[in-house]
Amino acid sequence: MARSASLLWRNLRVYQIYGANTDVGKTIFTTALCKAARRLYRDELTGYLKPTVPRDADLLSSIYSHLAKAAGSGTSPDGWFFIETAGGVHSPGPSGTSQAELYRPLRCSVLLVGDAKLGGISTTISAFEALTLRGYDVEAVLLFEDDRYRNADYLRTYLADRHRGLPVVSVPAPSPSEAHGSEEDAESMRRYYEETSRSDAVRGLLGHLDGSHSARVARLESLASEGHQRIWWPFTQQKLLSPDKIIAIDTIIINSKGVAPAGVLDGSASWWTQGLGHANSSLTLAAAYASGRYGHVMFAEAIHEPALALAETLIQGMRRGGGGGTHRLSRVFYSDDGSTGVETALKMALRAARTRYGWAVDSKLGIVGLEGAYHGDTIGAMDCADPSAYNEKVEWYEGKGLWFRPPSVICREGKWRVNIPAEFGEAGEIYAESLTDVFDFRAREGRGEHLLYEAHVETVLRHHLDKGRKFGALMMEPVVLGAGGMVLVDPLFQRALVNVVRRSQHLFSPEFVGQPSGNGTDWTGLPVIFDEVFTGLYRLGRFTASSFLGLDADVSVHAKLLTGGLVPLCTTLASESIFRTFSSDDKTDALLHGHSYTAHPVGCQVALESLRQMQNMESSGRWAPFQRGWVGGTDDDGARQQDGAAGNNNRASRSCWSIWSPQTVDWLSRRPSVAGVWALGSVLSIHLESPGGAGYTSTAAVALRDALRATNHGPSQNPWNVHSRVLGNVLYLMGSQTTGQEVVLEIEQLLRRHLS
Amino acid sequence: MARSASLLWRNLRVYQIYGANTDVGKTIFTTALCKAARRLYRDELTGYLKPTVPRDADLLSSIYSHLAKAAGSGTSPDGWFFIETAGGVHSPGPSGTSQAELYRPLRCSVLLVGDAKLGGISTTISAFEALTLRGYDVEAVLLFEDDRYRNADYLRTYLADRHRGLPVVSVPAPSPSEAHGSEEDAESMRRYYEETSRSDAVRGLLGHLDGSHSARVARLESLASEGHQRIWWPFTQQKLLSPDKIIAIDTIIINSKGVAPAGVLDGSASWWTQGLGHANSSLTLAAAYASGRYGHVMFAEAIHEPALALAETLIQGMRRGGGGGTHRLSRVFYSDDGSTGVETALKMALRAARTRYGWAVDSKLGIVGLEGAYHGDTIGAMDCADPSAYNEKVEWYEGKGLWFRPPSVICREGKWRVNIPAEFGEAGEIYAESLTDVFDFRAREGRGEHLLYEAHVETVLRHHLDKGRKFGALMMEPVVLGAGGMVLVDPLFQRALVNVVRRSQHLFSPEFVGQPSGNGTDWTGLPVIFDEVFTGLYRLGRFTASSFLGLDADVSVHAKLLTGGLVPLCTTLASESIFRTFSSDDKTDALLHGHSYTAHPVGCQVALESLRQMQNMESSGRWAPFQRGWVGGTDDDGARQQDGAAGNNNRASRSCWSIWSPQTVDWLSRRPSVAGVWALGSVLSIHLESPGGAGYTSTAAVALRDALRATNHGPSQNPWNVHSRVLGNVLYLMGSQTTGQEVVLEIEQLLRRHLS
């Protein structure tokens, strides 16, 4: 069982003592607890720590090292450790960071010293909540008895109602004279500690903590095996999954090693959702705010601020990030995940095509798409993908499409290549100097590279249409096929496909005589759906993946990074042209689709905060160090960057960058075991040679994945390893949008070590 | 634009002054603000309130009344109002309730007075967070300057980072002598107020508040029309939806009138999700805790505590709540909403049937179900429902089933009737004394009432099977068809259907020769799926709706109330017999289904808290007053209740109860405009006479809905109205699990008034 982070050892009970305020008795309680532990657990170690190191990362790693040594990898005798904080929960630590934030990666069990004075009920509950919303477990609240305010009585009732079994322990305060420091006082305090540490309250508390520590460890140790009995895992052959392979997550997996002793580096960006680091407290507070303000809003015929603001942010972001010049997307439909968002998109597009072309409701409509597509796991979304290991055994799967095998882009032996499949007539490779050149449509279209693509698309479409097939939408993932194998598609081909579809007003319904309104935002040919669930919202370095193609979709779908890895939410954006299709005096002509939690305020508020943070990173130049590595390499690039007036398409086509360095991509591309590699945005995709065939069932990448996972890196007291995912012969690594250069560098070194 | 609750008027800027602690200067700041407002806004009203009324509800309504009078329905001159609280944010109000909780229904804009003393950074941030997680907008933080601690400087940086534009306003503190009360002091304080209220800081603050109040009102007033331009609403014909009909939700809709001045009573339980009241702070804190502890967990091959604990809670709850004696459900698969949960269930069941019966992967498998079924909006879920207004215009819809029109139960003219459709051969009605008698299977099966049902089911099944059709699952909503028209199905029929399907080992595949393992939990005939998304988890008064039938499903689906109206989450439970089907050495035999946010910790933690609260309500007898009305009415019932040893089925069949009184059901059932009525759990379903035909497109219930919505009830200063939803000719009302008797009574009176 691999376990992630936190100050948890079977043989060492570690508590961090937080105060509801300053001057509430933290030191007194800590001292009494130490004394009581020494007396009651004579054969055990009892330790105390009040750490002061200026840098946050050093502070955490020194605490971790100190305790790891005390625990002796679990071989030392049992023991107790108390770590005292300074001031209140949010009082600044040595570096100025709030302590509740600073210590969060350790997620130590907490004893909260409450405030017995007037006002202390409020500060104690507030402190309790500040800790809770950072994921701490408060194991007990301790405070002095006070006959006047009786805060302990109130807190006992209040907290018991809400947090079953949480002890509120009160002891008499030292008399004022006792705490003043003279010799007589010292003797008096000695007596006070003697009595307090022998009191039933303190002894009972230690017994409780001992029990709950054992229970916590036992539960964590059985989590994998209990889960193995109860859980049906997604995308997992459970016969091949023994409990020892299951990762029991006790707390956040961290993906910023800097503040993460003994951590797991989340190399799959938590199934591609992660943008702002796990358990980002701004996202937590956004979720809590919306929960407290709204709870649930029944969204049919209602509106709330986060839903509207998010719709506005997305529409504006798509416009700024779009390269097409037209601004098609103007409507937002909410659903719960990529699958439901794709199904919504599909319903929108098919209806638009069917009504414009006058087809009967029971017409068999297909979609046009790409081979290797993946749009989700509900039946309608599955039917949009070509047959593959994902769907071929699913009973109701019935692929309803025409899928083009796309030319793909990869770096091999230091060269970027576009691989053109045989069916294009002129199979072969196009070479490019750089990834940026692959996206330089002006140059490539100038050389006529798109003509082969357009001719092929037109031929194939005509062939199928001539056979009487009907199509209702073009659906694809712009730039990268994700679950279909982390394939970088030649963007010029995707442009060609869209362009052919859009200019062919009469291709899809020869008898059609109408015209779109001609304002430039109406769909033509077929509605174009971009599934940006994985590729959008900065995963590839830009707000929208469509900007890489210099095209606007008629419908596009956005999820995953939308909520920065917190809660499910999906948005399907559509143009007015699509929207108008459903407008009628008959209510059954409406899009009769919806989920109970449609546009749930928690998700919308979190998404707003997530987008705000990423947009700020973009505008503040946070990614400039990465970008310089990719675009600042040559004089030519420098000159190009100044050429800002040359139009959207051109500018957009230039800024291809990744957090992964071009040097590492180059190095990887020259390994004998590597068939090819590419990097864009936070994604690095390594295609390994696979003698037994590539694809989902290949196991070629498993060895590398296991090596990254098994090896501990970093100093021995502060180890970390990399958790990554494979897709057949492909191992990919994905950072979050906050991943720093030093982390990337370490992982790159690690890759080089394993692939040398 | 109907607007819900909160102290918001265009002409009155109202602020509640909270303190980070006691003795931080709330009164001084409030006084200075009042003085400044009087001076700067000479023609306006400036008011001050420090409310003290013992009962929470009285306190809220007196504040509301006072301010509503001051605002004069928006006709009075503009003004300012400052409401001072006592102590810190969580200090107990007059009744003992924490003030932050107590005043939440008013959701007044907040000015937070921070603490300038040592430790004050911590108490100020904690107080800010306690307010935020209750959905308050903190408009500014005010505190005294202090050269030693400089808390204002720290807070300015800290808060600006996280909350754009939030002003942190500091002013000099009064000198210690000024605050002491002698005559000289009074003069000195007068001078202090004079200076402070003229200071740039305070003047600037008022200007800022004036601007943000105007902006807030303007935004709220444009929310509906802006939304109308940007949002694509679910289940809504937008051509028929003008902005004036859109409800702009500024804050929680409340469904407990007791603490809700000027509120909207949420009569649809927020699309059937609501169980614990909107914005329940225990759910908020649960969400925040999981967010802070985990963020996202990539769930494939991983496990975390809330996912396991929720799985255990559900499995145990189903066992305790199940009436069948066997305990089939033992596995939990997580997804995002009812639709995805149903699709998962379907994939599970079809695979189980296909592999056992040896059918080819491309066999056309149908499901057996009920007419009027509704299982969600993704294509696979839609295909499980018979053709209806919901799906008949959807391009990829292709009903894949055999649907039985079920006998239904309704109360009319004071009598409970089971309506048996003509195709059963002996069409007609069975009468029952009470709803409880309808569920008394021992008695009814003793009278042989099930024989007609079983014979019909067998005949129809054989007919279709003889034609070569193949079926892979029986799927239905136990007891109530929700979206299909809020129909109470005769539970005896559902039992008969399941029993025929289960005992017919060879019916569905005549050539089948194998046997189930015979341990009593294996599926036989066809896997039985119960879609409890709407009917389960106490909506009908019990943990599981299957207990009403005295049957266990092989697969069951749970959502909506699961998370108490906070975030999307769905669970699909399955038996080991179903689970084993997917076990293989080939990873592509696994259930290759999953969503990015599968088992997201926030949802699981919230669900745990939601279930815990509802289970506590059940075990503590919270619903006893309602239950007494239904089962304690006659001597006969009393005698029956003591007969506890008569077996599970029998006991379960007796406890039919509703929050809606049997007297009101009886009264409604005798109205000429009412075709029938039923109530169970928190649901009241009124079927109105509809000359133009019933069904989704009927408008018969719209008039009653509009009447409930348009009328203001309660005192004029404290009005409320009822927001309800219709399904064709059916108007339903749905309480939450916390709705009190006095609220139900008021709504019942209202119904009587409108239907007299």
From TrEMBL, chains A, B:
Subcellular location: Mitochondrion
Chief place of localization: mitochondrion
Residue stretches of biased makeup (Low complexity): 641-650
Annotated keywords: Aminotransferase, Transferase
InterPro entries listed in its UniProt record: Aminotrans_3, Aminotrans_3_PPA_site, P-loop_NTPase, PyrdxlP-dep_Trfase, PyrdxlP-dep_Trfase_major
Compositional bias (Basic and acidic residues): 180-191
Annotated spans, Disordered: 169-191, 632-652
Pfam family, one: Aminotran_3
SUPFAM superfamilies the UniProt entry points to: P-loop containing nucleoside triphosphate hydrolases, PLP-dependent transferases
Protein name in UniProt: Uncharacterized protein
